[in-house]
Amino acid sequence: MSSLTIAIVIVFIFGYLCIALETLTKVNKAAVALLMLVVCWTLYMFDPGNFTAGLSPDQIAAEASAAIEGHLGSTATTLFFLMGAMTIVETVDQNGGFNFVRDMMKTKSKRALLWRITILTFFLSAILDNMTTAIVMVMILRKLIDDRRDRLIYASLIIIAANSGGAFSPIGDVTTIMLWNKGLITAAGVIKEIFIPSLISIALPAFILSLHLKGNVVATTDLGTVETHNDFTEGQRKAVFWIGVGGLIFVPIFKSITHLPPFVGILLVLGVLWTATEIFYRSHGEESEAGGTQKRLTNIISRIDMSTILFFLGILMAVSCLQQIGVLAAVGEGLNTTFDGNHYIVTGLIGVLSSIVDNVPLVAGCMGMYPMAEVGDMAQDGIFWQLLAYCAGVGGSMLIIGSAAGVVVMGLEKITFGWYMKHISWIAFLGYILGILAYWVEKSVIGM
Question: Which of 218, 264, 347, 360 has the fewest Cβ atoms nearer than 10 Å?
């Protein structure tokens, strides 16, 4: 291993630590990820061991550029999918598409409310991303629960349910989107075999936490007083919801029919939703009104969280550099040797690690470490890839900083790291382990 290869690894590890310690460094992780991308590939460029001997500087530059562009093409499919999905969800939300969720929350019993929140969050996060689902559910929760202690329990359960729901869907979490885009899992395969483990991973924590809740809900804000969106009629709001959310459900079907990359399907849905909302606004004659204009897709698309997109760009391209120089393949081989190829242990440890550090680079690293095989556990929809989808998604619930949903809820509800670790982490861990056991039963006992 050359000195420049070692330098690339050191840069990546240092950048990774800065990303994990973002709350302490106060430096946005997107900035760190972009620096990692540039420095890693620049060092790669100046390492003669990465190129055929005797090449001229221009030929080396051409080979390096070709390698970068090859990895960038693969990364771009994930980025375009995310940008399209984020815009669709925000458009549905801004135009009142999620109003029906509030209506489904009407109940007096605290325990009944807990199960309704759990079920809705679980299934919504399979369609939306876990971060967006967590935001929507916490905002509704604030209108329902005044008691601080109760709200912390509900909010913690939202985190677990959002992560578990995203794990069994090809579009429910960034990591499953990555695996699906690469063809390592299929929509039908991951839903069929990960649904029950994911369901168990939230059912146990929900049952345990329900034991801490007694009596009826007491809130000062009635659901009927919640502000509604007045730009569209009720029928138009429902149309926006079904075009947006129904479109997201249709994306895997579109891929199976056309065999085109998933981002093509998401852009189709975005185009249809964009056209529909423009027609709705024109029918209201609200083009010049500030309220309506702000909710139009042309403005919503400009408010996409570009720092998140740039973070994914930086981290995925930095990981691809490690893949290019062969480091990831060596690490993967070492893990297999250490644990004698036991995929349950390897992916289980990755899941635990994903509660400490971001699961996006973890999964990206695994995709580089383990090439897809034609048959066996590493084939498409093999045990390793399905377990990775489950463990990387559900494992993030064990610590509040372990997932995007956790970080968002932590900020919205001011939940401390210590409180969550003391009261919730062990419950999330039990659900996580029980889900892995359920998957083992499916594969080894039932033979699914």
Answer: 218
